[in-house]
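If you are new to this repository, start here. Below is one unmodified record pulled from the training split, so you can see the exact layout before writing a loader.
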Amino acid sequence: MTTPVILQAHNPILSANSNDSLYRSDSHTNLTCLELFAGTGGLALGIHSSGFKPLALIELNEFAVQTLKKNSKSALGISPEHILEKDALSIDYSEFTNRIDLLSGGPPCQPFSTGGRKLGPNDHRNMFPTFIDVVAKTRPKAVLIENVKGLVRQCFREYLDYILKRLQFPSHTMKDNHTWYDHYKELCCLRESDFADEEQYIVTHQLIDTADFGVPQRRERVIISAFRKDLGIKPFTLTATHSKEALLYDQWVSKVYWERHNIQPSQDHLGIRERLLVSSHQANFLKEEGIQPWRTVRDALNNMPEPSPRGEEPSLLNHIQHPGARTYKSHIGSFWDYPSKALKAGTHGTPGGENMLRIDKDGSVRYFTTREAARLQTFPDTWEFCGPWGACIKQLGNAVPVEVGRLFALEIYNRLKLSLKSY
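And here is the target side for that same chain:
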């Protein structure tokens, strides 16, 4: 049995008497956040850039922890001691109670991934119960969770409903020897009047494609957000800011895309129907007012130097070429003039046919460098990744795009600020 890690009151991360306003939850200064399963820091960086100050980031993977510590002071404004290399199950969270404005995290996605064993709630890596237990113990003002699209599949849909209901009433814990389904049936019988407002949450969820929010990558994810009921904040979903239609308009109607990049048009990335429309000069793609075009791989990697060979000093941080890329059925890499395919972490290392760029019309491919993959996940070039190439790509394959974290956290930040002003 794992011994809980007690975070002592004298720890500057948690001390209620600390004079450092960076770590105090104060509606007149900074809002604070705590993140579980922080990974390589995509969500944390997005949340921090929206105005939140981290109390701590909790992560178990060795290389991800190294990356977080390497960037913590320069990018997150906290010292490396605020990065806790711990199993989230091993921590006593009592010191955080009523001191967190936003609790965030991306519980391990493997139990619900289409590429995994699909064990869902029966997978020992399922950390949703742990995350919601922390909600119950700490009572944050708001919650932000990211996970894979697999959660909304029919086989897991009821479990997603359970997660949402559990998050609504986090203090109603599971009885010994009960299954999650037994617990779900109990939760469905509860009424809001059974709990005080500060013991329950208003919860919503949204399935997004990150390309619709300015990320140069097709990456479908479930975003769950919640506000404590006593704050009187309404739930929200975000409206897409970018679209495929706007990209096709810029490429084949106005043609400003090709002019901007000073290249000849290419149809490589188009589907059969789209190629026929373009070839017959009948492309009638629409561009809705106020909607930006999807960002492409070319947009993201524009003006980057050539990758440096292994063994040489890169001209750009983490921009070293890894050899051995190859295509096989249904794994042909990403096209320059379209958002990339979703970066993948892989179960046993990097997927052989993914995380690649098609570099020429002859179908030749190469792996994305760590820096290129980071740009596809909207990390700044100053964010340094630690570990060998495979470990870095795995970190990025598991990461939340920084821009997605920023957009959702900014909405939460603004709503919390408005609510707290009325207190």
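Two things worth knowing about this chain: The two ends are 43 Å apart (CA to CA). DSSP finds twelve helices and 13 strands in the chain.
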